[in-house]
Design goal:
By secondary structure, the protein is an all-alpha fold. The protein has eight helices and no strands.
Length: 205
């Protein structure tokens, strides 16, 4: 029994113990609930995502990571990034309007509007991913605009694979929210963890 317990709590490959991994999973779920609540005003969505990513980074680094620290990070992110978040929402709203017009059937032609709708949807996903990567890469005191430009270059040129991973995470969140709305919060926490993993994966030599 002791040997079994040791096998369950230790990993010979040097990875985190099983109990630690379960604790990290629980922390992701909790961060997702905080993220969902903080995102309700919509304009705070990107700052809330940045705060959730910061919370998970602090937890992984063994620093103090509680709701007070999350709240402090959220206030800083909102204060410094609400303009960037508004611009991000404006871009998404414009793309959603274009997609609605294209899919309404009022435009002449058949294949051209369908292709335009596909392109618009792809651009919308790319805009969401770019915003999430910006939020995940942001640090207090860093400009959101500069961080956004760096995140876009990284997403397109140096780490497109990470962008695809985040796009897959977005699909999981959408399916989870569609199937069972209460799962939206935990799924958002998993998406924040995915964003942190993507950033650390890119930073790894």
């Amino acid at each position: 029994m002791n040997a079994m317990n040791a096998a369950n709590t230790a990993d010979p490959a040097g990875r985190r113990p099983l109990t630690s991994r379960f604790a990290l999973f629980a922390e992701c779920l909790l961060a997702g609930v905080w993220l969902l609540l903080a995102s309700l005003p919509l304009v705070t969505a990107l700052p809330a995502f940045a705060a959730a990513c910061g919370h998970l980074r602090r937890y992984l680094d063994g620093e103090r990571a509680g709701w007070r620290e999350f709240g402090a990070g959220l206030r800083t992110a909102v204060r410094e990034g609400w303009r960037f978040s508004l611009l991000w929402w404006a871009v998404l709203a414009l793309l959603a309007f274009d997609l609605r017009v294209v899919s309404s059937g009022v435009l002449p032609g058949g294949l051209v509007p369908a292709a335009a709708g596909t392109v618009t949807a792809a651009v919308a996903v790319a805009a969401v991913v770019a915003g999430l990567r910006t939020a995940a890469a942001w640090r207090p005191g860093a400009g959101w605009s500069g961080t956004g430009r760096t995140a876009v270059r990284r997403a397109v040129r140096t780490d497109p694979g990470g962008s695809l991973l985040l796009a897959g995470g977005l699909a999981v969140v959408a399916v989870a929210a569609w199937m069972l709305p209460p799962l939206a919060g935990p799924a958002l926490g998993a998406l924040a963890a995915c964003a942190v993993a993507v950033e650390r994966r890119h930073a790894r030599p």
